[in-house]
């Protein structure tokens, strides 16, 4: 048999606020700012409450650790809304960084190297760290310099978008290096100035040889 629903006794408790407001503020003197952040000066708590009442707003303690504590005269509901909106915007702008890994073999060919390096570039441009490792099999471990050369090629290929976060080091049969994003702004090339049209060359004066011919023609006419 189901038990009958019994409503909770007493008033419902409101969630605890993060800030003291109005009469909850106990400091004798306060440094007060208005809703736009403009300073109103240091004043007694009673005077600050009076100004808040006149402006039909709340006195909100925003920096209790300061000496004297800093309070803001603002509508508390609006204050919480703006703070929540600001926190959401900051979380949205934060990039979640994860560690990506690409693996090579000691004898990785050029095609496979280029393919994996392109993927590593995409990871770095997205803001992720990349760990590149070279795996040695059997007696390949005797030729670690091959892995060092390969990883150095990898570092050089991504130097425009990364920096070495952890240098090369051996971990068992793996030689690894870690890169972190370091996207640099491309240098803008200066565009060449357009060449101005040079003045058309003036008509050359008739030479001494041409002048007699012109005079001769006029005489004959």
Descriptive overview:
The protein is of the alpha/beta class. Among the domains are: 22-87, Translation initiation factor 3 (IF-3), N-terminal domain (Ubiquitin-like (UB roll)); 99-181, Translation Initiation Factor IF3 (2-Layer Sandwich). The protein has helices at residues 45-54, 76-93, 110-125, 144-157, 210-220, and strands at 29-33, 39-44, 58-63, 70-74, 99-105, 129-135, 162-171, 174-181. The strands form two sheets. The chain has a four-stranded mixed sheet. Strand 3 and strand 4 (70-74) form a beta hairpin. The longest helix is centred in the middle third of the chain and has 18 residues, at 76-93. 13% of the residues are buried. Mean pLDDT is 80; it is low at 185-190 and 203-221.
Descriptive keywords:
221 residues, alpha/beta, Ubiquitin-like (UB roll), Translation Initiation Factor IF3, four-stranded mixed β-sheet, 8 strands, 31% helix, 24% strand, disordered C terminus
In short:
With 221 residues, the chain is α/β, with parallel strands linked by helices. The chain has helices spanning 45-54, 76-93, 110-125, 144-157, 210-220; strands spanning 29-33, 39-44, 58-63, 70-74, 99-105, 129-135, 162-171, 174-181. Among the domains are: 22-87, Translation initiation factor 3 (IF-3), N-terminal domain (Ubiquitin-like (UB roll), Roll), CATH 3.10.20; 99-181, Translation initiation factor 3 (IF-3), C-terminal domain (Translation Initiation Factor IF3).
Topology, element by element:
Layout: E1 29-33, E2 39-44, H1 45-54, E3 58-63, E4 70-74, H2 76-93, E5 99-105, H3 110-125, E6 129-135, H4 144-157, E7 162-171, E8 174-181, H5 210-220
